[in-house]
UniProtKB/TrEMBL annotation:
This is HIT family protein. PANTHER family: HISTIDINE TRIAD HIT PROTEIN. Residues 8-112 form the HIT domain. InterPro entries: Histidine_triad_HIT, HIT-like, HIT-like_sf. GO terms for molecular function: catalytic activity. SUPFAM superfamilies: HIT-like. Gene3D superfamilies: HIT-like (3.30.428.10). The active site is at H101. A motif (Histidine triad motif) lies at residues 99-103. It comes from Bifidobacterium psychraerophilum.
């Protein structure tokens, strides 16, 4: 799956909706979450559209590993290397945007 017309994050990746860029390369985009739940709350997404981390893991596991590396880099740059990585998967788990995204939470001591 490449990109999806009615997808908020595809629109953000294309620059049709503004976002604050944290990191970008050929395959991956990272931007500030609009409603941060930690001092640093960054979303890391593949530029290609996959609905969920399950889909990404089966269709492009190298990109999933790359996303983890990008998260690690953000945590090293913005904090001391500690970070929480969250993939909400499915409606019942709180997924609201169906373009896979890693929530990278860091920048402070996090609540359990
Ligand atoms: P989910 O609930 O799907 O795991 O996470 C979606 C995330 O996207 C939420 O944390 C929400 O704050 C963030 N979000 C929703 N709309 C926008 C937007 O237009 N711009 C940015 N930067 N983040 C958004
Ligand atoms: Zn998308």
């Amino acid at each position: 799956m490449s990109d999806s017309e009615d997808c908020l994050f595809c629109s953000i990746i294309k620059g049709e909706i503004p976002s604050t860029t944290v990191y970008e390369d050929e395959s991956t985009y990272a931007f500030e979450d609009i409603h941060p739940k930690a001092k640093v709350h960054v979303l890391v997404v593949p530029k290609r559209h996959y609905a969920s981390v399950d889909e990404l893991a089966s269709e492009d596991p190298a990109e999933l590993a790359h996303i983890v590396g990008v998260a690690q880099g953000i945590a090293k740059e913005r904090y001391n290397g500690a970070y929480r990585l969250v993939f909400n998967t499915g409606l019942d788990a709180g997924q609201t945007v169906f373009h896979v995204h890693a929530h990278v939470l860091t920048g402070e001591v996090l609540d359990e």
